[in-house]
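S1.2 Input.
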Amino acid sequence: MAKELICTTCEHVGQPRRQTPGSFVIEVVLWTLLIVPGLVYSLWRLSAKRNVCVACGSAQLVPADSPAGVRIKARGEPVRSVAREEKKEGTARNRSREPRWARSVTSRSSASLRSVTSLSSPSPASNMVALVPDSALPNPVPPVVTSRGRGRDSQASPKQILGRVVAAFLAVIFVIGVVARTLDASAARKAEKIEQIRRQNEEMRRRRADPIAATEITFIPSDVALDYRTSEMRITGKLVRDSGATGPGRVWIWAYFLNPSVDGRGSWSDQPIEVTEPFANGDTATVRAVGRFHWATNSDLPRAGFYARVTASPASAEVAQVPPSSRLLNPAGAFKVRVVR
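S1.3 Output.
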């Protein structure tokens, strides 16, 4: 069983009741419209629950065995059933509306009358009541007001509560914005670093840390043919390297084809063609690269109107190819393809 408490305002003795501050309606509205402020408001209401007097609603309660409770008991018998009787008679509501100073004066007057009654001892032979001067009465003890009780007894108005909730919501939004900007900046730096590493890797792949791979070469096509009878493509042209350079021992020649009459946004290509020892006799060489093309059996494509863009690389077959996103699909400047049927 819970310990009995004494109210220092009305001197009522009994079990307190739990009171939750704030408004349930405001809590429902905040949860319906704004989730974060609703959560903050609900946590505040749960954490700010307090014990209040069942008679006057005051939070200034002390244990009955505490020094303040003993002093209140010493002034007279604490009120135990007054609240119930007043509630039955319908006067408890009017009493709760009285100012605190009025309730304090009433309680002190009741205590003084009880002291007079207890000090007067009527004789069996006489019904007279002895009058006791005020100097003989015990000194009234003022109610004990603790800092905790004072803080809890002062409830915030709905406007103050709404202001706190709005401030908390704005603070949460600000924190979310700062975190989002930080994450965006971090993601941008990471993407930039990844792009830099990709470029470095591409450059290293081009050069392969090998002087031969770093040799600049140029391929000048003189004839590009598509033979539909043998499904072969033949690329003929001149390879030129830097004067005085050595190697390379291998060169990969590759081409992608486009046809404006079919699709101005599409292109076709096959595997690069490897040419070995092209510079065995000097810095220039005439080469002919022969390979297969897979769209020779595609009856939906025309067999005329093709253009080609040719590339060559001494690094690798992968470096010789151009990604689809980087291909130029405009036939201007491309090499006209000869079709063999």
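S1.4 Remarks. Residues 217-340 form a domain with the Immunoglobulin-like fold (CATH 2.60.40).
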